[in-house]
Every structure is written in structure tokens, then in C-alpha cells.
Amino acid sequence: MSIKMPEPDQAVLARRDEIVAALRKIVPGEGVISSAAEMIPYESDGLMAYRQPPMVVVLPDTTKQVSQVLKYCHANGIRVVPRGSGTSLSGGALPLADGVLLGLGKFKRIREIDFDNRAVVVEPGVTNLAISQAVDHKGFYYAPDPSSQIACSIGGNIAENSGGVHCLKYGMTTNNVLGCEIVLITGEIIKVGGKTAETCGYDVMGIITGSEGLLGVITEVTVRILQKPETARALMVGFADVEAAGECVAQIIGAGIIPGGMEMMDKPAIHAAEAFVHAGYPLDVEALLIIELDGPGVEVDELISRVESIALSCGSTTCQISVSEKERLLFWAGRKAAFPAVGRISPDYLCMDGTIPRKQLPLVLRRMKEMSEKYGLGVANVFHAGDGNLHPLILYDANKPGEMDKAEAFGADILRLCVEVGGVLTGEHGVGIEKRDLMPEMFSEIDLNQQQRLKCAFDKDGLLNPGKVFPTLHRCAELGRVHVHGGKLAFPDIPRF
């Protein structure tokens, strides 16, 4: 493993048998997994290039048990790594050798469906897709739809602020979550938000969403559901070069049209997805845009006509418009299966995640092509074109000496490029361990220290998911210290608490 994690606490490891016994009293039966063989499925998440067996796995099924586990770990100085479905692509749920892996997989109940308030209350282990399926009979759905929605859990979606192909118009997870029940490292249970869009006080929901398990453990979630649009149709538009496709994206948004989703794939991704799903993708194009428009039927017809005209003006070579719901879903099936499809053409790949201003898309794609030649590794591009969220898939073979290192370096250069052109390190996969050491590329030391002060307010001992997000984790006492020079405090008249 090229990424360094915190050194194991040998004193904690020496007490492993005692810790396992104590946890079995809190979560009896099959709720504690401690044998090496049984813990193998938990040694990594979706970023499988990095692996680390946990000290012990705990699978509670009630909020009370989560509270008691965290209270015990806090009292005994034991690190804890929360885990949902394990689909994270940034190593956010990578275990620690001296840590408790706290799995929320048993929290799979839908507690309440409230159509009057357009809200659903669920446990964190409920999958993203299951929420939409639970309300489909009334014509409702949950808007964020990551490609892994059949498997990823809503708790993990909140931890990483997941998006999906429809986040352009309907927002990320943070725009669709109304409330949470959270257990702090001390075992204290708090509730933030509710069924209303606005709540008084600090925006704690905004802090928790995207916090990557560093601040607390989510045990209940309230999400907003939306009524399905009257009409939804998709266009599949091919281009002879990726620059033309990028220009088409910019012109559509510039015209004031906000599609329900707008995705792009380059030639390697198109061929992989078509061979996997047989969605009818054109194979003689360099770039493919899938653009979905939704709303009242008359409006959709008008918008389709406008988008088609824009595509032709940008040099599109093919344009197919869905004529049925089955065909619309087939267009999307290839895009949603792009990641596993690419897995068929390469022994291994790293799925990157960075976001750029839309206007920089042609430049970034050209630079990535140059990097591909520099490193001698292929790359397939699949991304949310509408909001500039890139997902380059770097193709390599881990069995070939040095290729993993080259893939990591290639990925780091892509993320540096995103920041260089005015973008950010992550769009929806989170920082985790993958982007942790690149955080100084985007944030100053002052920025990072301030972010860590927020963590200290929730977890002053740094026991929740340490080793993630921050390249250098300071002790909270260091971040809170007051500088004294020459025996005198600066600004002595300011009240200090």
C-alpha cells in the first residue's frame, strides 16, 4: 500500500480479546466478527487497490447498540471506522488495524413514508434505489441516482454527498436530505433537520452531508421525494470529436436549458458499454452525449427541438431521440453500467472523480490524452457533463510491476489539473484516502486547520475514521492553542472563552 495510514496503537491491539468480549456483550449473537477469514470481505471498500484487515467488525442493528459501541470505544480510546455498503470509491471505509469497523448493513428498514409531506424516513442501510421503489406506486421517486444505486446505501450517500446522472437539475444528496439522527463518538444521540425544508439554527445537515464518517454515525435519514415528471425523453447524440461534444454541453446550458441529466462518454467507454449492455450506441463516434429532458409534454417537445438544433450547430454526426420509456431507460442503461463494462476490457482500473468548469472540458480532455501517452496507460472517460464532474477510468494491470504506481501518479495529475483550471478535487466520491494527500493542492494550511477545528468540535480525540481526508492530522489541543509572544497575549481586551 503506497498510502500511509495511522500507526496502530499497540496498547489497543494488546487488549484485543478484552475489546472483542466487551463488544459481544453490547451486540450479542452474530453481531461481532473477529476471525481473520470472516473479516476478509471488510478489508477494503470499492477502492480495492488498498486493503487493510480491521481489528474487529461490529454489526449492530439498533441505534442503542451503536450508541453503546461508540461510548465504549470513546471511553477506551479505540478508533472506529463507519461503513455502509462498502461501495465508496475513495477508500472512505478502509479499516484500521487497531480499529473497530462499525457496519450499518443491518439498518435496512423503511420507517415511514409520508406522501403528504413528500418525505421518507429510512435507516442508513437502505439502498438508494429501494427508496424510489418504495414510493413508485404513487408516482414518486428519490432524485439522486448514483450508478451504484442498486447497491449503495443512503447513509453512505450522505457521507460522500453522492450525485448521479440527474443531479444537474435535481441536486446532489445535500439538496435532497432533510434530516438525520446521528450518534456522536461519545454515544450521545442527536437529531438534526426534519421533514421541512428549512430549520432554525446552524446548518448542521450541511456539515454532516459529505463529512465522510469523521463527525458521527448516521442511524436514521429523512429524504425528500419528488413526483415523477409528466414526460421524460432522452437524446443520444454522437460527435466526431470530444471538443465538439464539450461545446454542445456549454451551448445547451448557455441557452438556459437545464436537462434532467446530461452525460458524456468517450470512444473507449462507448465501445465497452455497448458490448456490455447492447443499448444501440453508435460505434463510429469519438464522443456520445445522453441528454434527458423532462416536464410537461409540450415543454419537452420544444426543448428537444432546441437541443437538437444546438447539437447540429456543434457538428453532431448522429442524433437519436427516445420514442418510448423502454428506449429511454435503455439509453441510460449503458451509461449506468459503464464502470462494470470497462472492467471487462482491463484487468484493473482506477475510477477518478474531479470537477471542472464546463468551459474547460475540451482543454482537460486534451491534457488527459497527453497524460495517457506520457504514462503509457489507457483512459476511458465517463462523466456528468452538465456539471463538469469527470470520472476518468485509468486502465492498468496490477500484476505488472510498476503499473499501479503509474496509475496513481496519472490519477494525481488529473486531479491537480482539475484544480489548476478552477475546479475541485472531488464531485461526489469524497476525499477518503485517495485524494487525502492532494488536499494541499486546493487548500492552504489555514484552510485545513480550520476544517480540522470543526472535526475537533465533534470528535476531539480523533477516534472517528482517522487517516482520511486530512493529509496531516493535528491534535485538537494544538489547533486550539493561543499564541503568547513575549509573555503577552495578542489583543488582550478580546473576551476569551
Automatic annotation (TrEMBL):
PROSITE patterns: FAD_PCMH. The keyword Kinase does not apply. It holds the Pfam family FAD-oxidase_C. Residues 50-228 form the FAD-binding PCMH-type domain. InterPro entries: FAD-bd_oxidored_4_C, FAD-bd_PCMH, FAD-bd_PCMH-like_sf, FAD-bd_PCMH_sub2, FAD-linked_Oxase-like_C, FAD-linked_OxidoTrans_Type4, Oxid_FAD_bind_N, Vanillyl_alc_oxidase_C-sub2. GO terms for molecular function: (S)-2-hydroxy-acid oxidase activity; FAD binding. Its EC number is 1.1.3.15. The keyword Nucleotidyltransferase does not apply. Keywords: FAD, Flavoprotein, Oxidoreductase. Its cofactor is FAD. PANTHER family: GLYCOLATE OXIDASE SUBUNIT GLCD. This is Glycolate oxidase. It comes from Rhodopseudomonas rhenobacensis.
